[in-house]
Design brief:
- The chain has about 210 residues and is mainly α.
- It has ten helices and no strands.
- It has helices at about 1-25, 35-40, 45-50, 55-75, 85-100, 100-115, 120-125, 130-145, 155-175, 185-200.
- Helix 1 (about 1-25) packs across helix 2 (about 35-40), helix 4 (about 55-75) runs antiparallel to helix 5 and helix 5 (about 85-100) crosses helix 10 (about 185-200).
- About 25% of the residues are buried.
């Protein structure tokens, strides 16, 4: 029994991995259950047994990819770092992930399919971008509690910092054929965003 269960788990993981890659490369409409099974081996029964159907397999692929990408961001160790260094470390990991080819393909795919799967679109936001915001918000809340940052909604502060990093670069990178940003450009953007987030851009604060 244990051997059969282990084999079933492996088969499900293999189907999910292959389906994820195919959806990213071809989009939802162009991928059939037959094509997935042809590449993964086995029969269509395996898909229906483990996932219920193509739409459910697509949803599982989206969520699995979200967890994969978010894990690469949230596993950055910020312990013992000064706040500015911590923001830089988190920011670099965030940019590397969201500008990576798999993340860009997922973003394009979800924009294309969110009208067909509105609930999945909401789940993608929660499991992907929102999870990254929440992770940084936890760190910012800790720094506020330690008296190292001014009070303010941690989640909103996290979004302000991360959105400073991504909006321009992300939109350019989503366009097919756009040149990827150079590493030195990414470093400079992260450094500038950390400075502005912590210290602002004005030479003097206006009088109240």
């Amino acid at each position: 029994m244990a051997i059969l269960q282990a084999r079933s788990v492996r088969k499900r993981a293999e189907l999910l991995r292959i389906a994820t890659d195919m959806f990213l490369e071809q989009g939802y409409e162009a991928v059939s259950v037959e094509a997935i099974v042809q590449r993964a081996g086995g029969t269509k029964t395996n898909v229906y047994k483990h996932f219920g159907g193509k739409a459910e397999l697509f949803a599982a692929a989206v969520e699995a990819l979200c967890h994969e990408l978010v894990r690469s961001i949230t596993q950055v160790d910020l312990d013992g770092l000064e706040i500015e260094d911590a923001l830089r470390a988190y920011g670099r990991a965030f940019l590397r992930t969201v500008l990576g080819e798999r993340a860009l393909k997922q973003h394009r795919m979800m924009v294309a399919e969110s009208a067909r799967f509105p609930d999945l679109g909401r789940r993608w936001i929660a499991a992907g971008p929102e999870a990254a915001y929440r992770s940084l918000a936890v760190y910012l809340a800790q720094q506020q509690a330690a008296g190292k940052l001014q009070p303010g909604p941690p989640r909103r502060l996290a979004a302000l910092f991360l959105d400073m990093l991504t909006f321009d670069l992300h939109h350019r990178s989503l366009v097919a054929g756009a040149s990827p940003p150079r590493p030195q450009e990414l470093r400079r953007i992260v450094d500038d965003a950390a400075q502005i987030f912590l210290y602002g851009a004005a030479l003097k604060r206006p009088r109240a």
